[in-house]
């Protein structure tokens, strides 16, 4: 493979920070517990949720710690809908929509300091508060700081009956605003705490400007996270702590009163290798393809089937296989690809069974499941289609487990496995699938889910939830990328951008997890 050809670009990301002011209270005997949800629509695509912030108890002017990260697509209109909800924690009760506002990425990026204050409107069109939106636009950064902090003689805000439960919050300066970028864990009943080491990129901490000040605040946790007590702050910069070797900082609390000291116990500059660095070092990609043959795709004898036999330019699955494989084969080291089916009863010449299978080779030979190149994949798909009895349900567990085993086998050979699944999205074993994906986070595997047709892809979108809890297990890294095929089928470059949006980061994050670096 030409290591310099078709390398995914270092993409611009937009990080969106939100806070609200003067929200109208929805609760009778207390204040609302608001959280913010972002709905994002790229021109020509369906609306998708970018997730929710945390909710903040009893607060009508919340500053949320969680930010949203989206791709910046300069040439396309990107609509943003921000919704503020009141969290209802009673069993069986629903969250209440407090208000929402619609804008575009261009409106915010074009504003002074990339900051907008927007009126939140309720369902009757009345103003119910203000939403403040800041955007920070930076390219990816592979320079990180590893920092370890301790507190010394911190202020006790708990009186005679306890000690403070301190944590640190880090902010970067964007325009005139301080935006939250990191929070440590809380350490209970300790005025001399030692927080766990963490890594943060230069870009995230100070926009990559070594002399730019960042702010650190110390807080004491009160009442399950509400009414936290402020203990003081200090400002410093990467230049201060690396070049000038500053390690001790006084917490400014009030005039002539200190909240204690924060000491930098350890600092280390880390340069994380890039996707290209690993490719140049000989990392190879092994592509596996899974195809959905369930009855939900329609009878192939009819022209409206996603697997229709007779179509002028190929059916939707054939088109998707051609487009996706053409892109990913650029990275496959030997151009030999194993293609499997699921959700059908195979009646292949050398593999004929009488029940639905969830992972069978289209070659009919488990020992020789591979074909060569794009032409081989398309011919195999066409030749086997008449010999498959569409059935169901669609279960991803078997093919995921198979890909996981292959990835584990190849991991010591500098081979990274990519499983491409093309499906109409009607997954039956969602519980098992989420459990397997959680385990896949620790192996050399990425999973690209391509939604074919015009179905409801909520289950596939759920599997693509970055850093969310799946079956109560927090993913050590994100391994899933979901792409609906139809919105991008008209443009190979845009489809390429979407298919490869997360693969470089998933590979480098896996290497970082194991402490692996290129040998060259």
Automatic annotation (TrEMBL):
Highest taxon of the lineage: Eukaryota
Any GO molecular function: calcium-dependent phospholipid binding
Ranges for domain C2: 1-118, 123-251
GO biological process, one term: cellular response to calcium ion
Name listed for the protein in its UniProt record: C2 domain-containing protein
Organism (species): Paramecium sonneborni
InterPro entries: C2_dom, C2B_Copine, Copine, Copine_C
GO cellular component annotations of the record: plasma membrane
Transmembrane segments: none
Pfam families: C2 (PF00168), Copine (PF07002)
């Amino acid at each position: 493979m030409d290591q310099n050809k078709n390398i995914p670009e270092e993409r611009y990301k937009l990080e969106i920070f939100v806070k609200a002011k003067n929200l109208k209270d929805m609760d009778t005997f207390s204040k609302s517990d608001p959280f913010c949800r972002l709905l994002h629509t790229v021109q020509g695509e369906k609306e998708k949720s970018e997730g929710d912030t945390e909710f903040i108890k009893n607060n009508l002017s919340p500053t949320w710690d969680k930010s949203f990260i989206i791709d910046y697509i300069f040439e396309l209109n990107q609509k943003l809908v921000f919704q503020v909800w009141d969290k209802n924690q009673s069993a069986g009760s629903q969250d209440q929509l407090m208000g929402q506002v619609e804008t575009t990425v261009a409106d915010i990026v074009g504003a002074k300091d990339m900051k907008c204050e927007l009126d939140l409107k309720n369902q009757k069109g009345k103003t119910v508060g203000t939403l403040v939106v800041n955007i920070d636009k930076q390219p990816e950064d592979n320079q990180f700081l590893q920092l370890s902090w301790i507190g010394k003689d911190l202020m006790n805000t708990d009186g005679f009956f306890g000690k403070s439960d301190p944590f640190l919050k880090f902010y970067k300066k964007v325009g005139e605003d301080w935006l939250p970028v990191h929070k440590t864990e809380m350490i209970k009943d300790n005025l001399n705490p030692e927080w766990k080491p963490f890594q943060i990129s230069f870009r995230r901490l100070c926009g990559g400007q070594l002399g730019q000040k960042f702010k650190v605040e110390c807080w004491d946790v009160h009442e399950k996270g509400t009414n936290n007590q402020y203990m003081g702050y200090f400002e410093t910069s990467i230049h201060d702590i690396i070049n000038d070797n500053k390690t001790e900082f006084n917490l400014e609390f009030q005039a002539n009163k200190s909240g204690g000291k924060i000491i930098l116990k350890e600092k280390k500059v880390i340069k994380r290798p890039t996707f290209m660095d690993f490719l140049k070092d000989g990392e190879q990609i092994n592509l596996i393809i899974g195809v959905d043959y369930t009855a939900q795709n329609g009878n192939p004898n009819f022209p409206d089937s996603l697997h229709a036999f007779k179509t002028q330019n190929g059916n939707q699955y054939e088109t998707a296989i051609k487009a996706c494989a053409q892109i990913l084969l650029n990275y496959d080291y030997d151009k030999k690809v194993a293609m499997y089916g699921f959700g059908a009863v195979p009646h292949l010449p050398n593999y004929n069974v009488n029940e639905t299978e969830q992972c069978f080779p289209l070659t009919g030979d488990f020992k020789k499941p591979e074909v060569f190149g794009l032409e081989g994949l398309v011919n195999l798909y066409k030749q086997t289609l008449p010999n498959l009895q569409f059935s169901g349900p669609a279960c991803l567990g078997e093919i995921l487990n198979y890909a996981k085993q292959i990835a584990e086998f190849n991991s010591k050979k500098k081979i990274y496995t990519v499983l491409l699944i093309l499906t109409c999205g009607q997954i039956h074993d969602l519980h098992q699938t989420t459990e397997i994906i959680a385990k896949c986070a620790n192996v050399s595997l990425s999973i690209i889910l391509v939604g074919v047709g015009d179905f409801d892809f909520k289950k596939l979108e759920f599997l693509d939830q970055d850093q969310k809890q799946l079956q109560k297990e927090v993913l050590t890294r994100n391994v899933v990328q979901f792409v609906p095929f139809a919105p991008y089928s008209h443009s190979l470059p845009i489809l390429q951008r979407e298919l490869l949006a997360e693969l470089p980061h998933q590979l480098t994050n896996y290497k970082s997890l194991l402490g692996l670096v290129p040998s060259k």
